[in-house]
Amino acid sequence: MSFRQARWDEPLLMEKRSAPDEPIDLTDLVPPKLRRERLGIPNLPDFDVVRHFTRLSQMNFGIDSGFYPLGSCTMKFNPKFTEELAALPTVTRIHPDQDESTVQGALRLLYELQGMLATIAGMDAVTLQPAAGAQGELTGLLLVRAALTAALLLLVLFAVQHID
Q1: Quick check: 38 and 21 in contact, CB under 8 A?
Q2: Is the residue at 107 inside a domain?
Q3: CA-to-CA distance for 72 and 132, rounded, in angstroms?
Q4: pLDDT digits (tens, 9 = 90+) for 19-46
Q5: How far apart are CA 127 and CA 110, in angstroms?
Q6: What does the pLDDT look like over 84-104, one tens digit per residue?
Q7: Does residue 142 lie in a domain region?
Q8: Is 123 helix (H, G, I), strand (E, B) or coil?
């Protein structure tokens, strides 16, 4: 899979050519000590500013333009419809300290999701525990460490059995 990121030599707004400043009467608005002759803000039409930020946004990696499997949860592939599902009151009103008897539907959903993900991935089990970001990264590292430790243990056992 390849991704073609938009690349422009986009100048800062301050570097863009602007129209002359329009005089504004600040007599009643700003105390004399705080008034300035000129502001260091470019006087640009709205469409230039919108186009500038649109070009900048297209240079960013986003869920609408590609798949990113690691890192911040905001960078992962999250289909738009899942955002709507996660915002449903039946999901947002669940509290971590809520009595288990009142959240059996949510627990069943999570349990069945784990089973489906494990089947799809061809694994015995999966975890839904890490929320995202650094927690997910740490969980991945701990899983790799556990797998390498288990593999090393198997090698040692195999070697011990074949020494004689």
Answers
A1: yes
A2: yes
A3: 7
A4: 777 777 777 888 888 887 777 778 888 9
A5: 10
A6: 888 888 888 898 899 999 999
A7: yes
A8: coil
The HSE-up count of residue 56 (CA atoms within 13 Å, CB side) is 10
Q: Is the pTM of this model over 0.85?
A: no
111 shares its domain with 57: no
Residue among 13, 1, 58 nearest 40 (CA): 13
The amino acid occupying position 15 is E
What is the biggest distance separating any 2 CA atoms in the chain, rounded to whole angstroms?
98
Residues 111 and 157 placed together within one structural domain of the fold:
no
CB 18 within 8 A of CB 45: no
Claim to verify: residue 12 and residue 1 sit in the same structural domain: yes
Residue 138 belongs to domain spanning: 130-164
Q: Are 76 and 68 in contact (CB under 8 A)?
A: yes
Two tokens, residue 127: 């975890």
Tell whether the model's pLDDT for residue 74 goes beyond 90. no
Amino acid at 8: W
Domain tally, the chain: 3
